[in-house]
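target protein:
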Amino acid sequence: MLLKLIESINLYLKDFKLILVAQGYNEEVSNYLSTQIKVDYKIIMLPKLVGMHNSKMIGLEYIDKECKDYLVCSSDDDMVFTNKTTFTKSINKLQESNTGMVSLGWVRHINALSKYKVVDEFVKQNIIYTGGGLLFTNKLTQILLQEPRKEYICDNTLWSILSYTNGYNNYRYRGSCTIHNICSVGGRRSWIDGGKTELGRTDLVEFKKSKLSKPNKLDYLIPDSSCITELGHQLHKQNKK
């Protein structure tokens, strides 16, 4: 899956620099990946699995040291950018002082791509997801980097709730479409099944246990906007931009 992501970045994200934080890969794999990347890049090798939140925080730390003003497109290795993936309108939206994050539209399989209705519309949504790419600028990075490095069960829920409680509005953009093969074998699913993860900011968002949870397994539903606590809403109002 990672190679398909890299191929799509080569085609559609030529102006981006790829920061690839690779968990559990050896040097041989890293060297091979470097031969496949055609854009400017940096590979950060991690000898063991650290989870989604921690690995992406390492990537953000690198970006923040290298750049002053920048745009981040947080991505997963099971994504494929397409000729329907667009950034211009979302970049403009992020220039608004009260906008924190924008999540691009997505479909689960290539067969659904042609059926996706492209609509030039931003939908306000307090908790958003990686979807077809989670976009934000350096103003949000400064907030995210204050969060502890813990083995949280997800990164996008935590990051968007931090954006929201710091007074920003988050949006989904329906005018772009990326393929995202979520819920496939491995990745986040294997990480959670490993049982070493933590829920995260339970003061800001309520995590509901899945009805399909197995005994002794930390298996929770991914929170949505209805799961934000009263404190979370109060902080948004208090810090409203």
About this structure: The longest helix spans residues 52-66.
